[in-house]
Design a protein that fits this description.
mainly beta, 4-stranded antiparallel beta sheet
Length: 576
């Protein structure tokens, strides 16, 4: 096991938190003036704890399975180069963003910080490794913002990346970007991009790192929305061409061999096996054992990582252990799941007026609570905890007082007392900026589009009437697997409905889908975002006994069987 460095420099983007979903207000707006206004408080930051352990497969003295002699006289094929070899030893390294917001690189001999240059207040939604595009021996990184700006950051070895040399906009139209490896055989890594409707596009790189690095996109096909994981595994078969693995929510794993033809980049799928939904993330790590073939790692909810070494035909040898403690990784570079943004924590306001903050540990559980502000100083507060309204990735705690809406000490605006419910589930308009839903006492729901800075909203857009049929509205990102923000609504009779998002402000939701009944057993219902590290939004509820239950999203608009998290949660008057 390699030695671990204790250095912990913070990522330049200052990604300390991804705070969770908006909730119903604690009281009607008419009660706003029953308690004094609260002053701004500093939100706590997650603690990393110990860095994970990493056990690499054994490296043979020379690459024994590399390559490609198909027949007598055939030229040997050079296996694809690793895409994330930051220390120059010929093997890909593991780069991940931890719970504390720091980006680390785990090499064969140490763990240390990996600097991602850019806006110091930006949390990138995703990081993609296309490989070394400019031939200097250092891998480039593609950094994607929540609002759809894609930046190409030149690699600088183990120290991290330089500032963006190219920036493109409009990439929020995709729910997933994948470093595909070299798809067309020109020696450079390419990128796949999937839309929420399931269309898959190939972006072939052109060798430039200072101007647009991509040729015109090529449509690969439709129907790719049925997969909840797309894993670019680089060269799995030893022919130098990038290959792809995909997983369904039911746990079926498929292999797509690269053809080398950009017009039709993949051969027909081949089923690898079942049961892969036992992992919350599958990550392409290229050649881990030195045989020239691309391998993958898979992480369990408990944080154990396993290596799956390739056989050269799209299947794997028996898995081997890769280490423990990997639930500290909130984002892997090369992970197959859809990235999430803006909601991964929860607030609890107890009956004595004290406010506490929880963050999940990517294993289905929460870390120990941390107090926020003065003990007992939040009594009677009318709070809403929204998904991130700016580019920091931090949730925003809003307070409604005497009809005025505040974010900390900042006044967002007056006249908000006409609403008895505010919910901030994320981006509903398709521009990547966090939005707000507001319901009147008469049941009319309005959408307020955020400006991306958390300081103002555009003029309201009427969603529709009849929303007073629900006694709870919650949201925390994507529930049905298409990457768009959704909304959950519970009736007074206890039926829970899903409103799938459309990404269109004028009509933000599709027709509702009945999830099931009996949800009125929960006195408090909250949407803290992704709890178990798979990137899918989850749900929690507190019953009359004070027990907290977790409902893990399947990514299909449904939830798995509930799991008890713990007791004693009846102490809270509200969860946000």
């Amino acid at each position: 096991m390699p030695a671990r460095s204790k250095r912990a420099g913070r990522i330049a983007a200052c990604t300390a938190l991804v705070l969770s979903a908006g909730m119903l207000l604690a009281a009607p707006a008419s009660a706003d003036d029953t308690a004094p206004r609260r002053t701004a408080v500093e939100q706590p930051a997650p603690a990393l704890g110990q860095l994970p352990s990493l056990t690499l497969p054994k490296h043979p003295a020379q690459k024994s399975r590399a390559a490609g002699v198909e027949g007598a006289g055939a030229a040997a094929v050079v296996p694809a180069k690793p895409r994330l070899d930051v220390d120059g030893d010929g093997y890909s390294d593991t780069v991940y963003r931890a719970i504390d917001g720091v980006v680390y690189v785990a090499t064969s001999n140490a763990d240390h910080e990996f600097t991602i240059s850019g806006d110091p207040y930006e949390q990138y939604k995703d990081l993609v490794a296309p490989g070394d595009l400019d031939g200097d021996g250092n891998p480039e990184i593609l950094a994607l913002t929540a609002t759809g700006t894609l930046q190409l950051l030149q690699g600088q070895g183990e120290s991290g990346t330089g500032y963006a040399t190219w920036t493109g906009k409009g990439w929020q139209i995709y729910n997933k970007l994948v470093g595909a490896g070299d798809v067309n055989g020109d020696g450079r890594g390419d990128v796949l991009a999937r839309t929420p409707s399931g269309e898959l596009y190939l972006y072939v790189t052109n060798g430039s790192v200072t101007s647009n690095p991509f040729k015109s996109r090529v449509k690969v096909g439709n129907g790719w929305g049925g997969y909840d994981q797309l894993v670019g595994a680089n060269d799995v078969t030893g022919d130098g061409i990038g290959d792809l693995f995909t997983r369904t929510p039911a746990g079926e794993l498929y292999f797509y061999a690269g053809t080398g033809n950009a017009a039709k980049p993949f051969a027909g799928r081949v089923k690898v096996g079942n049961g892969w939904n036992g992992y919350n993330q599958i990550v392409g790590v290229d050649d881990a054992n030195g045989d020239g073939l691309g391998d993958i790692i898979a992480r369990t909810t408990a944080g154990a990582v396993y290596y799956y070494e390739s056989t050269g035909v799209g299947s794997f040898l028996t898995r081997s252990g890769g280490g423990t403690g990997w639930n500290v990784a909130s984002l892997f570079v090369g992970a197959g799941g859809n990235p999430d943004f803006g909601k991964n924590e929860m607030f609890g306001l107890d009956t004595k007026g004290s406010l506490f903050w929880y963050y999940p540990k990517n294993n289905g559980l929460f870390a120990a609570r941390q107090p926020v502000g003065q003990s007992g100083g939040w009594g009677g507060a009318n709070l809403t905890f929204t998904s991130s309204l700016d580019n920091t990735g931090r949730g925003d705690l809003l307070e409604l007082y005497a009809g005025t809406l505040y974010k900390g000490d900042y006044v967002i605006g007056k006249g908000w007392g006409v609403y008895n419910s505010l919910v901030g589930p994320g981006d509903l308009s398709g521009d990547g900026k966090g939005d707000l839903l507001a319901r009147t006492k008469g049941g009319t729901l309005y959408l307020y589009r955020g400006n991306g800075a958390g300081t103002a909203f555009a003029s309201r857009i009427k969603v529709g009437g009849g929303w007073d049929a629900y006694n709870k509205l919650v949201g925390a990102g994507d529930y049905n697997g298409d990457g768009r923000t959704d909304l959950l609504a519970r009736t007074k009779g206890g039926t829970l409905y899903l409103y799938p998002g459309t990404g269109v402000a004028s009509k933000p939701f599709k027709s509702r889908v009945n999830i099931g009944g009996g949800w009125n057993t929960y006195k408090k219902l909250a949407a803290p975002g992704d709890i178990n590290g798979d990137g899918k939004a989850d749900l929690v509820g507190v019953d009359g006994k004070g027990d907290l239950y977790r409902y893990t999203s399947t990514g299909t608009g449904k939830f798995g069987a509930r799991a008890r998290v713990g007791g004693g949660w009846g102490t809270y008057a509200n969860l946000y």
